[in-house]
Each structure stands twice: as C-alpha cells, then as structure tokens.
Write a structure and sequence with these properties.
Strand content: 5-15%
Helix content: 40-55%
Structural class: alpha+beta
C-alpha cells in the first residue's frame, strides 16, 4: 500500500487510532507517518474553549488544515493562526 489516510469525523480522540496503527503496523503493513487535524475556521474562535478535545487534537497534530477561511475576515484568520501556534 502506498498511502492510507484515515479520517476521524468530528471531535474524536486520535490516540486510539494511532495506537492501533502502531500496534498492528507489521500485520497490516502500514506505518504511522503523522496526524492531520482539520480546523473549522468559521467556528473555531467561538468554540475552542467548549471542547477540551479540540486542544488535544491540535496539540497532537503534525499538520493543521484550516477550512472555511473564505468566510472569515483577515483579522479573524490572523487571530486564529496565532491561537493555533500558541
């Protein structure tokens, strides 16, 4: 297999999926290369403190993709990026 991307819908703990991939890497002939987290740019700033899991997903991410950036102002995007980096 060349590439496998698994998507956890919504707010899901990434650790069990990662652990399963690592534990079964030889049997399934896969290796874990990194975690991508998708952030809803339109709703993140108003919901970031509502869900502890959001912070966990961000802290474990190797890559972060921000969607819906066309629906927020440049200032909101700058604030969002600053919060993601800190």
């Amino acid at each position: 297999m060349e590439l496998l991307i698994l998507e956890n819908s919504g707010l899901t703990h990434p650790a069990p999926v990662i652990r399963s991939l690592i534990d079964n890497s030889e049997k399934w002939d896969v290796s874990f290369e990194g975690l991508i987290t998708l952030i809803d740019g339109q709703n993140f700033l108003t919901q970031e403190n509502e869900f502890l899991l959001v912070k966990e997903q961000i802290s474990q991410a190797d890559f972060i993709i921000v969607s819906k950036t066309d629906l927020i102002s440049k200032n909101e995007l700058q604030v969002l990026i600053h919060r993601l980096k800190n």
